Sequence to fold (405 residues):
Amino acid sequence: MAKKYLYLPIEAKTRELDAKLLLTYYAIKSNYNVVLGDHTPIFQHLHLLPKGIIFSKGHPDGDARKGHMANARKKGYTLVELDEEGLIFGPKYTRFGNDDKYLRILEHVYCWGRDSKENITKIFPSHQEKFHITGHPRFDLLKEKYRELYKDEVKMIKQKYGDFILVNTRFTRYNHFQNGFNHSEKYIKSLYEHFQKLIKVLSKKYPHLNIVVRPHIHESLTPYINEFKPYKNVFVVHDGSVGQWIMASSLVIHNSCTTGIEAFLLDKPVISYLPINHKTENNTLPNMVTEKAFNLEQILHFINIAHLSGDKPEKKRLLSHYYAAGNTYAYENIIHLLNKLNVAEENSVKDSTIQALSSKIGKHTMTSEEEIKSFFERLDSIENSKQKISIKSLAPDLFEIKSLN
Fold:
C-alpha cells in the first residue's frame, strides 16, 4: 500500500534516537512509512529509496551534510529542518549561513519556540512563511506521560549507582573526542579544570554519595577516566539517553547546558555552576531556569539543604518564550505540518533495493530491530493500544518502519 515516506537521519544516538523513535511511532499511526538510521547510509542510498520528506537535524554553516541535503532536493526529495541544538538561537544565529541559499531548498523549519522563530525571521524575513513553532519531540519525552518509558532503565541505574549526583559537561571545544585538547580555547579549558576540581571536592566531601560524570556526546571520555581513576565513587558514563540519568539522580550540576533545562522540566534539583564569567552566563537560558552557584561553597550549601525549588512558576513562564510545546506535544505539531506538504505517496522499498542493500558490509551500531520494537511496545502500553509494525533492516544502521494495521 502506497504511503508518504519520512526520513529521519540520526547523528548521535544518546541525544536523538528516542525522540526520533517517538516521532516515528506517531508518524506511522498517521499513515507514513519511516526510514530511520544513521545519516550516512540514508544519504548514500537515496537513489535506491522511495521519494519522501527528509529531516535535517541542523548543521553548522559549511557542514558537508548541507550539501547532501541539496543533492537530495535535486533527486526529488522534500526537505524540512528541526535543529537539534535550536533551543537557544540567540540574535546572531549562523547555522543557516550568511545568505538564504540553504533556506531556499527547505519547505519547513520547525522552531523550538517563539524566541528562535523571531530571531531567524529577523535575519531571513523573506522566508518567514517557512518558520513554524513546534517544540521538539526530545522534550515530549520529559513530560509525565512518557516518563514511564524509562522506569526499567532508571531502576537499573539506581541499583548500580545508588544515590548519586549527576555532573553534565559541555567542553567539546577544548576536549574533543577526535581532535584531543585544544589549548587555544582558554575559557573552556578553565571551565573544564574548575569542573574537575569540583568533582574531586564532591568525591571527598560526600564519600557516601556517587558522582556520575556525563561528558557531552562529542567530548573525549579518556581524560575524565584517567583523572578520576583514584576516586572510587566517581564514574564516567555515556550510556543511554540523558533523561533516564537525570530521573535516576538525586541532583544535577551543569554549566549553561540544555541538560539543565531538562532536569528542571523533570522536577529534579539542579544547579548551574558558574565559577568564571557568571555575569554573562547568568543570562543564558539553562542558567536562568536553574539555581546558580558561583563557587564551591555555594555548591556545597545547595547540596546540604533539603531541596532546591526557586521560583518555579516564574521560571516556567520564562521558559515558555523559548520552548513552545509546554502544554502540547511537539510530535503532534510536527506531523500536522508534515501533512500539509504536497508529497506523493510511494510504494514500499522494492525487493530489488533490499537485495542490493543487503550486500553492504557492516553491523548495526546505532540501534537494532529489537531495540526499536521494545521502545514501541512500551509506547503501546502507555497508549493502551497495540500497533502492528514491520521493522525491516535495509542496510547497516538503516531501517524501514511501517504499520501493518
